[in-house]
Amino acid sequence: MPQAAVPRTRNPPLRDISPGSKDTVAAVGIAAVAVLLHGALSACCSHEPLAAMNWLSLLVLMTVAGLAHSMEYTCGGTCGLQAVPSVYHPMTYSYGSLDYGMTRVVGGADALPGAWPWIVSIRHPWVPGLRHLCGGSLIRAEWVLTAAHCFDQVTDIGMVYLVIGATQLTQPGPGAQLRRVKQLVIHPYYNPDDYSYDIALLELDHPVLCSPYIQLACVPDATLRVSELQNCWVAGWGSTAPRAQTSSDHLQEATVQLINLKICNSSRWYAGKIHTHNLCAGYPQGLIDTCQGDSGGPLMCQEKNSDYWWVVGITSWGKGCARARRPGVYTSTLYFSDWILFQMRLSPDGSPSPTSRACSHFLTTSHFWIHYITTPQPPLKPWPRATPSPKPMPVPTMGKVNSCPFPIKILMEFFIRVKELLQQIFGQNTS
């Protein structure tokens, strides 16, 4: 996306939340927890053999150390939560006094690691430079949402690979994960001439593991009023200036405004080229926009009075970058929420659909375009909204309580509670 022609020192400094810095916190936490637990257990079980005490202390250390050094876990349970909030605060614009004569390109800033943990870099070895082809959004552990036009020139999907959990392309870091593509699903009505139905899904060769740097994105359901969302952002590794031919090494982010489709489609703007399944976002003056290389990446809006972020759009196209009355054009994920569920072999209630695999349109090594057909879309069905579901606390049993609770069941309950507590602690350390 375009960036201001100013020294890079104007960008907010990066806060080090790399695994190296977390190891220091983890080491202190391990030592403190071990000392406290050893003392407490010694007081409780002073009559037990020393070997048993040492064994229990060792189990505690292994539990804590494992959490500190391996924060990866199976994705699921929640979506749309940032590990690190964005700190970039651009100028605020309104539709009031517009200065259409402004031609300055003012863009985003370097995103912090974990700020947008669902963003994906889609790469191809034939792309010059950083090999970055397009962006994408991780919406399931094995599914990435992106734009169909990213694959217009791709003849072998087996050469495409994805990097998840990275902020800098040249130094993805130890938290990043690499995946290959199992299959590519392109909307059957996609038209490369006018970029209608510009949406695609990538199924990964195997699921990713979530971490503070890798989280699932939320896709809106019919209950979300996208037009009322105000805190919206774009992010990507695209060009930082118009007509630039290289991608940005560091993930860029910027805040944008949703623009009414009637205004965006008016004669002085895009003059009827915007479809009903599109969104427009940017500013009437231009100034901030997505650019080449940001295609397929997310347009994200925060839910009111909530910490949840929704991927409401997929970066599709635009006339130039950051031009006045030429905002970025995005594919609406709300419009295609039912199609997305269907292709992932999920029914609207989240259970597998036995017929969806046979009906899906999969792409492997070549393209089979079905041009734009004005067919009515099926009614939208609610997207299964993922919300945290706390585990029920174990019900205490009645009866005599031993002074030293060493039974396996009690030990397992104890370690589960320790694990949940430490996950909360380490989660707070990354925010």
From TrEMBL:
Residues 105-345 form the Peptidase S1 domain. Its EC number is 3.4.21.10. SUPFAM superfamilies: Trypsin-like serine proteases. PROSITE patterns: TRYPSIN_DOM, TRYPSIN_HIS, TRYPSIN_SER. The keyword Disulfide bond applies. It is an enzyme of class 3 (hydrolase). It catalyses: Preferential cleavage: Arg-|-Xaa, Lys-|-Xaa. Signal peptide: none annotated. GO terms for molecular function: serine-type endopeptidase activity. Keywords: Disulfide bond, Hydrolase, Protease, Serine protease. GO terms for biological process: acrosome reaction; proteolysis. This is Acrosin. It comes from Cyanistes caeruleus (Eurasian blue tit).
